[in-house]
Amino acid sequence: MQTDFINKQTAVFRDLKIAMRDGVDLAADLYLPTKAGQVERDARYPVIMVRTPYNKMFVQGSFGTPAYLTRRGYAVLVQDVRGTNGSGGVFDPMMDEGWGERQDGIDTVRWIKRQPWCNGKVGTTGQSYMGGTQMLHLQTQGNEIDAAVVQVPAVNQFNGGWVYNSGVMNSTALSWTMAMAFTAAPRLGEQVTAQIAADAHAAGLPAGFAAPQMLMASPDLAFQIARGQALRNMPINRHMPFWNAWVGNRDNPDFFANTDMTGRFDKVTAPILHFTGWYDLFNRNSLDAFVNISREGATEEARKGQRLIVGPWGHVADAMLCHFPGALVDDVAMMGAWMDRHLLGRAKDEDDHRVILYVMGENRWRAEQDWPLPDARPTLFYLHSNGHANGASGDGLLSLTPPDRDEPADSYVSDPHNPVPSLGGHSLHGGPADQRPNDYRPDILVYTTAVLEEDVEVTGPIRAILHAQSSAADSDWFVKLVDLFPDGRSYNLATGMTRARYRRSRIAPESLLPDVVERYEIELPATSNLFKKGHRIRVVISSSDYPNSEVNPQDFIDLSAAVPEHYRAARQTIHHDAARPSAIELPLVPADRARHWIDTPFPSGSSGRFYTRPVPVEEAPPVEMPLDQLPQG
User: Does the annotation count 280 as an active-site position?
Assistant: First the structure.
């Protein structure tokens, strides 16, 4: 069966209606292999399911995935999620995908398994939102999925980077909602559609679907529209019920519970290939899922069946490929090999590494037995002052030596009217960026090691400990890890943040007492980087990171109502004396440790296929088939 369909054309049946448990019909396109130009009426296939809010037609046009898979002997079903494009119902991002009242993924899989063209096996694949639909489905009892490739899943809206991270709204939530409003509006009625069109016109956006295409391609356009607006009165977004619910439930984890992976890893029964990037805004979701399912999965097969690939990518990866040789991976071929292993019984054991990481700096791929690396050594690098650690006057010192005396504190003034530019980072279009444009800002603190006398590898989770005070009633603290090159270039590796009002409880915010020193632990995204001999390790501290993160008004007010009139400048102080040491903890990999370097996994080659990279794939268009020719058994 596996070889019969090589180089054969694909047939597609459009707009199948699949009824959910509440009676709402969701639309799907079904792709089947052909033989001699015909669909075999008695053939049975393993089925790959993709569930998307971005129009089921685009999965075919951008990546060629259905044609690639049907040639390998699979059927492919691509479905518009509830409330989008051809599907009925109201769009409520991620709320109907898992274990809630509506379980659209499970209902769809059960429908697939009843069809005469399905051989009883179902796999799932997709990235970002499509990764999130899989992850929540996989964590639901009775999910009936046999294998999955989950790429950067957009889950954990309360504290996983989308919508919030440590109580700070990620900018992606704003720009993504603005773009998706045009898709969701038709199911909300003519009045909402007209209101969104009016807001778009006032903002200078073109009519029709050119507007969401522009917003997806250029999030900066959304930030221009949002400038000066309160979250709860955001143009376009304010007409989306889910946006208003997100904004109104910032401190309410119960509202977001249906998107939270925590505590449900023991429901997973399928082998999963987790695929993410060091700069992806959902990096932590992938790493947490791999670690916890490996420990708590429902069966031994599930626990042993988890695999992880982490590359030097952000969420949209093109902008950073020039930094990292060998980074171009054909994720369609990778997904096909994973499905072949688990759904067709074809496997190459020599290629089955449990963990594959790209080590930046070394710029090579490496196979590992586990994540986090069990022999990485968490090591504290302490902040020290030279009396003027801010960017305008020179660097403070970062060293392994803890403070042993009363060192002077370092301070700066943070003004929300003039936030620190993000310069790359973990966002929809983030990645590595030269940090030199920020070097001489007076509202950052910079701490740098001496020139490294040998290579230093940092691979694993990172955290920072700050002893900080503010003159404001609320504040944000951002900590950025940077690789400083000998020629002065400096590239970001990871940025973590915390919001002071949540220092004691994420669900019960408290105002700061002005100029009282508080201790903060800040989690940074994991990374893997070799700081080369001659480079230096740098830490940058600020109180804003815009536009990646919303601006804190630096007042204890309703954040959904904040506008520039509420912004307050504040003096921010970092302490690093013997009684109150501030530091960053880096996972150092011993230099004498054995390292298993490997070639690029699934190199892209001439196809140019890669991740979310929309490079056209040369595939013959599918043959459009009428529904009355779909095999019925």
Answer: yes
Cβ(150)–Cβ(273) under 8 Å?
A: yes
Percent pLDDT > 90 in the chain is 82
Handedness of CA 35, 39, 40, 43 (dihedral sign): positive
Catalytic option among 80, 92, 128, 137: 128
Map 41-80 to HEC letters: CCCCEEEEEEEECCCHHHHHHHHCHHHHHHHCCCEEEEEE
pLDDT band at 106 (very low <50, low <70, confident <90, very high): very high
Question: pLDDT digits over 468-478, tens only?
Answer: 999 999 999 99
CA torsion angle 603 607 610 616 (round to 10): 180
Does residue 611 carry a pLDDT above 60? no
- What confidence score (pLDDT) does residue 604 get? 79
The answer to whether residue 311 scores a pLDDT higher than 50 is yes
Strands (E) in 189-260, as ranges, are none
Concatenated DSSP letters for 378-419? EEEEEEE--S--BTTT--EEEESSPP-S-PPPEEEEE-TTSP
pLDDT (mean) for 226-243: 96
Cα–Cα nearest to 108, from 176, 186, 25, 174: 25
Catalytic residue chosen out of the listed positions 137, 239, 274, 315: 315
* Cα 539–chain centre separation: 23
Q: What are the start-end ranges of the H helices in 24-170?
A: 56-63, 65-71, 104-113, 129-138
In DSSP terms, which residues pair with 310 in a beta bridge?
276, 357
- Per the rule left: phi > 0, alpha: psi between -120 and 50, beta: everything else, 488 is left
Least confident of 144-158, 159-173, 230-244, 446-460: 159-173
At residue 562, what is the residue type?
A
Q: Is residue 395 among the annotated active site residues?
A: no
Residues 266, 298 contacting (CB under 8 angstroms): yes
To the nearest 10 degrees (0 to 180), the angle between helices 219-226 and 171-184 is: 100
7-58: per-residue pLDDT in tens? 468 999 999 999 999 999 999 999 999 988 889 999 999 999 999 999 998 8
**Cβ neighbours around 375 below 10 Å, total:** 12
The yes-or-no verdict on residue 302 having pLDDT over 90 is: yes
Distances (CA, A) of 394 to 398, 419, 440: 13, 20, 9
**Residue whose pair of structure tokens reads 């050119």 in the numeric block:** 210
Using N-to-C axis directions, what is the helix angle for 241-248 and 171-184, rounded to 10°?
Answer: 150
Question: How far is the CA of 509 from the CAs of 231, 474, 505, 616, in angstroms?
Answer: 18, 10, 6, 48
Cis ω for the linkage preceding 372 (within 30 of 0): yes
What count of Cα atoms within 13 Å lies in the side-chain half-sphere of residue 5? 24
Average pLDDT over residues 560-568: 97
Query: Side chain identity at 352, as an amino acid letter?
Result: D
Amino acid occupying residue 615: V
DSSP 442: T
Q: Which pLDDT does position 396 carry in this prediction? A: 96
Q: Which percentage of the chain shows pLDDT scores above 70? A: 93
What DSSP character marks residue 126? E
Q: Exactly one of 107, 199, 260, 280 is catalytic; name it.
A: 280
